[in-house]
Amino acid sequence: MCIFCKIINGEIPSQTILEDENFLAFNDINPSKKVHILVIPKEHYDSFDVIPPKIMASMTEFIQKLVSKVGIKNSGYRLITNIGVDGGQEVKHLHFHVLGGEKVGKMVS
Ligand code: AMP
Question: Does the pTM of the predicted model rise above 0.85?
Fold first, then answer.
């Protein structure tokens, strides 16, 4: 079972920010910005590459709700999802990084 599936089933602790029946948002363990939240679907998909577009639409709504909740909707934020080897993906469970709370710079690193 992957590390994020273990977070979903409670085997590994995390700081939940928002949750519904399909998605979970929790703080990244190694934050690169003041706000660094990971958003994952509870169902395992290896990456963005294989998520059904219908589920992605619900995930979009969830992320929009999340950024309102944490107060970065108006100040702005960056969404990143790394995909595969060249994309630098370390955890093979689709996740979006939500970065904000301060300026995140021009380039994605
Ligand atoms: P990526 O390189 O896009 O696969 O990003 C994986 C992210 O997961 C990194 O930013 C890690 O800091 C984060 N991460 C790994 N393990 C945990 C954990 N147990 N709880 C929270 N975040 C984690």
Answer: yes
